[in-house]
Amino acid sequence: MKLFGHRMTPLAMIGLAIVAINVGAAILAPVIAPYSETDLVGDAFADPSWDHWFGIDQIGRDIFSRMLFGARMSIGLSLAITCLSFTIGIIAGFSAAALGRWVDMVLSRVVDLLLSMPTLIFAFIVLSVLGTAIPVLILTIAILDSTRVFRLSRAVAMNITVLEYVEAAKLRGEGLWWIIRREILPNAVPPLVAEFGLRFCFTFLFIAALSFLGLGIQPPNADWGSMVKDLGQVIALSPAALFPAGAIALLTIGVNFIVDWLLAVYSKGHGEGA
């Protein structure tokens, strides 16, 4: 099987299958799920059965249904945050590399300031003050994560802006947006695509951690991090907490399989180009 014109390794195909299954489950959750994520359908901590494949949680909700709706919330939110962080980071990083001088200095110092603060603690402070509404959650994590994207995109763009064809475009009088869109971005895509996968995993795990600590996605919305928190408190009575925890681990592994393959393809192509 080929992707982006390159043959995929077996591990990459396994990763792609894992991601595809999870994304499909998230999209089709209202169709697949036998119950709503908030329906009370039985006794608390009832064992798995034909009617309730993963059993019932601490207040009588179907765990399998909540897993499906939780996939929609966890994956969808992580994807939205990652896309926003990449938009902010790439625009800022490419602008710093293309404009240089004081623009680069100002943006780099702002990023250094944000990077000097522990991410989790800074997120705690912001979410404690502004609340845990989904827009606040998206914007907070996206801004924090964009600092990593800025540093990578700036470094990649710096290597590209010194090449002859970029200098020629500047001499022709091309504008900043044209240079970024036509010269820098096409040549920076491979490392940025690989970084997108890594940033998605980080965001996915970060949201799960915030939800586990009570500052992420709030009830009654289902997400895998809060499900681990709720079900983990009684793991001695029921192993149901293993289902959302296993789903988090499995999706992270699947994405990393794809990222490892993309990095190998980029490194091979970069080596051959050199």
Strand-helix topology:
Elements: E1 2-3, E2 6-7, H1 10-27, H2 29-32, H3 63-99, H4 101-115, H5 119-130, H6 134-161, H7 164-171, H8 176-212, H9 224-232, H10 242-273
Antiparallel strand pairs: 1-2
Helix pairs in contact: 1-3, 1-10, 3-4, 3-6, 3-8, 4-6, 5-6, 6-8, 8-9, 8-10, 9-10
Structure description:
The protein is mostly helical. The protein has a single domain (26-273), classed as MetI-like fold, CATH 1.10.3720.10. Helices cover 73% and strands 1% of the residues. A two-stranded antiparallel sheet has the order 1-2. Helix 3 (63-99) runs antiparallel to helix 8. The two termini are 27 Å apart.
Summarize the structure.
The protein has 274 residues and is mostly helical. It is 73% helix and 1% strand.
Name the beta content range: under 5%
First-to-last CA distance: 27 Å
Mean pLDDT: 84
Which secondary-structure class do the elements indicate?
Answer: mainly alpha
